[in-house]
C-alpha cells in the first residue's frame, strides 16, 4: 500500500503549476461569501489543509475552526447556525461521508466540499441536496501514497489562490535546505522527540509534520506556538534531553523565532524552516521544505513515509463505524415533514425544548396551511427569480434546462406562471430565450420588485424613461458619499435604487451604514429590501404583490382558477419576498417568516433554493380544473 515518498515529491512542481492554471473564480466567490462561523472538516492529512483554510478565513475577518468528523459530530448543537466546509482528497472515507450526512440533518447556513477527484462518493451525495455545493478537481498526480503529498500541496495552493495571493511558485533552495536538514538529523537519535514551534501562517505545517511523523511511525512530536512554548512547555527539554526543535517562521516571525531559540541551551539541536514571504504563501514554502524533512527523516529511521506498511488492526480502525453513538431523538406525534417545517420556522433543532402547548399550536397551523395548499386548485404559479428559479451560478446564464422543462410544462397544460424580481429587462431576455413565443402571453413578468409588470411579449417594459419617484430623490445625495468612499454601485431606476458591492467582505458594514444613513434622516416613505445579491430601495407604495390583481384578471379571462401559488426564497423580513409569501399559499425555498399561518418551507431535508423549487414543481398535478399540489404531509 502506498507509493515511494521521493517519487511523489518529484511531482510537486507539476501539481502547483496545474493549480495555477485552474479557473477558480466560482470557488473564490463561494468562499468569500461563506457566512461565519465556519467549521472546516477533514481527516488525516487533509486536516492540515483545514488548518490552513482557518488561517485564511481568519485573515478575511471570519471566525473558522478546523475539526475532525468526530469533533463535528460532538458539536451538533452549533451546526444549524454555522457553515460547514469539507476538505477531502478522495471523498470516500467513512468518517467524511458519515459526517457530511449528519451535518445535512441540521441544515447549516451552507455546506460545501473541495475534493481532488471528480464524481467521488461525497460529490455524488452533494448532488442530492440543494443546500450543498462541491468543487471537484482531477489532480494530475493521481492518488497519493500513504501520506498526503500532492493532494495537500494542491489544497494549499487552491486555497491560497482563492483566499490568499494567487500565482505561487516553488522556491528553488533545495541545496541549502538539504545540507541543513542533513546536519540536523546527524545531531539527533532515531528516537528523538521533535518539538515543533510555529507562528501564524505555519500552524497548518506544524500540524502536518506531526501528522506525517505519527502516521508513518517516524518519531514522537509535540507542537506549540512560540509564546505558548514559553508557558511551561520548555520544561520538557529539562526532563527529556533526547529532544530537538523544528522552528517554522516566515519573514514576520523570524525575529521572534531567533529570539526564542537564543534563550535555549546550545546543546538542543535546532532546525529552522523559513520563508522570505510574510504572506499566506509562506505556508506553501515551508510545507514543501517540511516534505523534504520527512523524506530524510524516513531514510534515517529506515521507513519510507510513502509506504510504511499498515497492520491489520489499522484497516479495521480506518473503517470503524460509529453511527451507533447517535442517541435516538425522542419521538413526537409529528410527521417528518411537519417536524422539519416547524424546526425551520423556529430555527431550532430540538422541538422537545419548547412547551408542549406551543408545539401543539404550531402543529395546528402547519396542518391548516397544508390542508389549504393541498385542496386548492391554482391557475398560476408566481415565482421570485434569483435564488428561486435560478441558482447563484445561473444568475448570468438563466434557468437550467431542467427548470425550463418544468416551467414549460405549466404553459403546455394551458396554465400561467409569473416572475416578479428586483431585476429589469435581463430577466425578460432570459425568459424569452427559453420560452417559445407562442406562450409569451401566458407569462407575466414583474420588474423592479413589482413597480412595473406585463406579459413576456411586452418589450416596452420596463420603462426607464419615467422620472425618479419623489420618495427616492432625497436618498441620492445621501448615498453619493458612501458610493465614493466604498466603491458601491448605485443603479437608479424610476421606482428603485439598487445597491451592489464587489468587496463581499464589507457587505455587512456597508449594509448597516446605508440603512442607518437613510433611517436617521426620517425618510419613512421608502422600504429597504434585500435579495440574494443586492439591496433594493423602493417606495412604500410598491410591492411584489402589486401585480396580483392584474394576474387574477388574466386568469379570469382564460377561465382558469384565480388562486395563485407563490414561491420565493427570502420570506423573512427584510428579504424581498416577505410580502410575496405572506399569504396562505406562500412557499419558501429558503428563509421563512416567523408567522404561524403563512410562508412555510416544506421542502425535503437540506433542499434549498432552485433545487427546492424543482421539488415543488415535481409536486404539481395538472387537470382540467386547475393545478393541484400533491405532497405527503
UniProtKB/TrEMBL annotation:
Gene Ontology BP term (one): carbohydrate derivative metabolic process
InterPro entries in the cross-refs: HAD-like_sf, HAD_sf, SIS_dom_sf
Signal sequence range: none
Keyword RNA-binding attributed: no
GO molecular function, one term: isomerase activity
Keywords: Isomerase
The protein's name: Fructoselysine-6-P-deglycase FrlB with duplicated sugar isomerase (SIS) domain
The species this protein was found in: Flagellimonas taeanensis
